[in-house]
Amino acid sequence: MDILEAVKARKSIRGFKPDPVPKETLQQILESAVRAPSANNTQPWEFVVLTGKVLDDLRGANLEAFSNRTPANPGIPIPPERWGEPYGGRQVALGIALFRLLRIGEDDREGKVAWTEKGLRFFDAPAVIFLCVDKSDQDIVYLFDCGAVAQTIALVALRFGLGTCLQRHVTYYPEAIRKVTGLPASKRILVGIAIGYPDTDCPTYKFQSEREPVDNITTWLGFD
Ligand SMILES: Cc1cc2nc3c(=O)[nH]c(=O)nc-3n(C[C@H](O)[C@H](O)[C@H](O)COP(=O)(O)O)c2cc1C
Q: Is the model more confident about 140 or about 51?
């Protein structure tokens, strides 16, 4: 796949087929993705990759934490309920578009809870990659590096017919993750990446998120 096609084809996938993803495929994806750039080649990223029973255990632990109203305690700060402008408008547009496709109305509390739970189940993906850094790494520059490796994972996954969804939400209960995976408290969990073969019948599959036109956000200098 041409690089431009791949960048355009990548989108968040929020419904997966149950087919397992071979370990060798996930390994190849990670081996390619770690070619991503990082500040001073520090490569601060670490991965925890889950599938099968251990992943099912984590789905259960996440749902339990949610139903017990466990306070969220993610590795990176929780964003505001509504961002300031211009981001808040984009955030709301995303929610409206997804809920419309899912036929979840504004007052449909049950529908919203079910969707939240689906997210906490990693959208039923057959595998998940947690992206972590060492907690001793206090320099926020690692967020750039980990963003680069996360996007590279998402792009390389396409090469194997796989879809991905970066999920901040699944890091809200790190104690559940640590309990199931044995990940020590010295590691900060940044994001989970649900990965699997896209369920093209899922209502959200056809969703294409909007982008601000580049000319609205770019200052061009010295070109004429
Ligand atoms: C750091 C980060 C965290 C995200 N967390 C979630 C999440 O918890 N749940 C979710 O459904 N999507 C999540 N997303 C996906 C974004 O909603 C998505 O990338 C954005 O709406 C653009 O859509 P696209 O990925 O389809 O192009 C996250 C993306 C990023 C970069």
A: 51
Using CA atoms, how far apart are residues 5 and 56, in angstroms rounded to an integer?
34
**Joined tokens for residue 41:** 């080649």
pTM (two decimals): 0.97
**Listed residue (183, 154, 167, 164) closest to 120, CA to CA:** 167
* Ligand 1 atom at minimal distance to the Cα of residue 76: 1
In whole angstroms, give the CA distance from residue 20 to residue 51.
Answer: 8
Supply the DSSP symbol for 183: -
> Has residue 1 got a pLDDT over 90?
no
Taking residues 203-216, report their average pLDDT. 96
- Cβ atoms of 121 and 67 within 8 Å: the answer is no
Pocket of ligand 1 (CB under 6 A): 11-12, 14, 94, 119, 165-169, 191, 209
**Residue 138: both structure tokens together:** 């206090």
H or E element at residue 131: strand 127-134
Q: Which atom of ligand 1 is nearest to the CA of 207?
A: 26
pLDDT (0 to 100) of residue 94: 96
Residue 168 CA to ligand 1 center (angstroms) comes to 8
Give yes or no for residue 137 having a pLDDT over 80: no
**Averaged confidence pLDDT in the chain:** 96
Look at phi and psi of residue 162 and say left if phi exceeds 0, alpha if psi is from -120 to 50, else beta: beta
**Could you give the count of Cα atoms lying within 13 Å of 58 in the half-sphere of its Cβ?**
34
Return the pLDDT at 224: 85
Nearest CA, atom 29, ligand 1: 166
Q: Residue 111 carries which side chain, given as an amino acid letter? A: G
